[in-house]
Amino acid sequence: MTAGEMGEREARNWAMALHLSPFFVFLMPSVPFLAVLVPLGLWLWKKDAHPMIDRNGKAVLNFQLTVLLLGGGLVFLSMLWMFPFRPELIGMEQTVPWELLSSWEGRLTVGTGVPVRTGLILIYATVVLALFLLWLIAPIVGAVRAKDGRPFRYPIAISFFR
């Protein structure tokens, strides 16, 4: 089907479906990449049918890939937190007295009296929650905008597809 054959209303419906398609991950949570694979499949299938579908599909994929990248970075940070770097495990000489630092860990505080580790955990948890809420809310707003035929630009999306 070419761009001339698909009506505006049908194109809006497909664009809306593209924005909502990442939520298929809730049907199979064990496959987290569905949030990228389902929109990718829909976009590849319908991108030539109408320019609106192509634009919205690229926007959805850019956002989902950005969230996947940021989420992966947050998982990596949490792994560093849980399993700190131990130079002696890879044959390097230990130059930092970790025992001394860990004995002070509970007493290091920020100006408010909150321990540094607690403060970092609160910041980390806030960033994770903000990213999750953005991942949850932005596609819904995008779907509503697509249904109305208005363009939507996802916040924080890296342009992988132009």
UniProtKB/TrEMBL annotation:
Residue spans crossing the bilayer: 20-45, 65-83, 121-144
Membrane association type: Multi-pass membrane protein
Database matches in Pfam families: MamF_MmsF
Entry annotated with the keyword Zinc: no
Protein's cellular compartments: Membrane
Keywords: Membrane, Transmembrane, Transmembrane helix
Keyword Lyase applies: no
Name under which the protein is recorded: DUF4870 domain-containing protein
UniProt organism field: Hydrogenibacillus schlegelii
